[in-house]
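re: that chain from earlier
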Amino acid sequence: MHTQGRPSRSNRSAWTALVFTLLFASSPASADPSTPPILPLQGPGVVGQLSIPVYAQAIDVDQPGSYRLTGPTEAVGRSEVVMGVFRNPEPFLITTAGSSNNRFTRGVATLTYQFAVVPPAELECEFPAFAIPGPECLVDVVVIAAGRVQTRGGAVLGGDPPPSFTVEAAWSLHDDLGAEVFSDGIHLPLTNDGDFNAVFSDGRLLPLKANHAYRVTMRVDAQTRASTQSASSTALVDPVFSFAPGTAAGYSFRFSEGIGNTRADPVPEPDVLAMLGAGVMAIGLRRRRRSCADRAATLSSAK
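^ sequence. v structure.
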């Protein structure tokens, strides 16, 4: 029979040394001090709804994706709302509200996200979120935003009430203090014009601060009340960011998780946009956005 005694002093010393080694090896103080901190960004948020009130139908939207709400088939058509909320390869919002036989439909959605300009580590720019002093590093950022609102429809007979529409496509950029940096869009208040088509397109140079979080808000709203003939309204918005030509090497963007920023064909899902009847619209926006990029590059070279 063996009895286990107390560990010797030399063994206790060895164990103590091992514990301290493990503690200090995992201590934050041992982290590389040259590694810059990472600015926390709020995740993207989606709030929207598709609705056909006469049938008490509605779909709440809180995630990216493709949505479709269809009412019962009627003698002269049907009521339908379609929406696309996309985060990749770039943020993109689009909705179409169609109706017939004096029905009202609506599609509305807002997408918000954040991004930051990350400077080269050697610049040691100020970092307000971590109370790190330094120079205020400004960098020219090109924002290329495009959007459109469109209405279609009329009355069959002269005595029929006209259709009505309310349409909005807009976006805005705010800094980390909540001040507006830039905004643009089209808001078409209540109108009976069933042949309205307007586009906004921007190629802007914005001096933005590195290590600051900026918030982008995108909004689309399409409301349609048809006459006896089918009618529809469409709204879409699509901003993309890039650095101006001549920007020093080493700068980069950070976006909210899941948000892309690839300047690609603005037709994220061809079947969805075909369903919306917006294929030609998207092609036109791509051409306008390229033109905006050329103008922004010209502005940058002229500075």
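The mean pLDDT is 80.
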